Amino acid sequence: MIHMLRLVLTDPQTGSDARFFQLLRDFLAAHRGTAASTEDLIDFAQRYHTPASDLDKNGKLDWFFREWVYSTGLPEYQLKISVRRLGPGSYQVQGTISQVDAPSGFEMLVPVIVASPRRLRELDSKRFLVPVSSSSGHFHLTTATPRERVTIDQDAILAIVH
């Protein structure tokens, strides 16, 4: 759950997880010498949400803790993509991430990585988070080649991915 919180607090533009580590430092400093509870962590973490992590649009991370701490759901994620040629050297990649076996209203930010087929360097890949709620989440992007490699949850943060 802590590693998933790190994912949720990662800056989607830069890929920086500095906000997560600042949360940990600040939480430890604020609760040094005391017995902190789960609720203390939840209350503290609310201060570190990002606009991208605010899935309920209420300035909080309630959705995350409700589902990954207080729920017993274990969703399975599946990726389907299609590629359509737009013109010379231009292709549209459309993707749908399905969420199966999740309780009603379950939400998550699912990490997507798009890399060239050669994947010469990790820096050449595009990373972003796709909000998946109810049953699915959608994304689309334009690429120069139809053979881009698209994966979800490459770092094995989520429970089940097929």
Could you please describe the fold and organization of this structure?
- Helix content is 22%, strand content 33%.
- The chain contains four helices and seven strands.
- It starts with a helix and ends with a strand.
- The protein has two domains: 2-68; 76-161, C2 domain (Immunoglobulin-like).
- The model has no long low-confidence stretch (mean pLDDT 84).
- The strands form two sheets. It has a four-stranded mixed beta sheet, with no helix packed on it. Strands 4-3-6 form a three-stranded antiparallel beta sheet, with helices on one face.
Secondary structure layout:
Layout: H1 2-9, H2 18-30, H3 38-45, H4 62-68, E1 76-87, E2 90-100, E3 107-115, E4 126-133, E5 136-143, E6 149-152, E7 160-161
How would you sum up this structure in a few lines?
With 162 residues, this protein is of the alpha+beta class. The protein contains 4 helices and 7 strands; from the N terminus they run ααααβββββββ.
Keywords:
162 residues, alpha+beta, Immunoglobulin-like, 2 domains, 4-stranded mixed sheet, 7 strands
Supply the number of structural domains: 2
What order do the strands of the largest sheet run in, or round the barrel if closed?
A: 5-2-1-7
- Report the average pLDDT across residues: 84
- State Rg: 17 Å
Kindly report how far apart the N and C termini lie: 20 Å
State the name of the first-level CATH class of the largest domain.
Answer: Mainly Beta
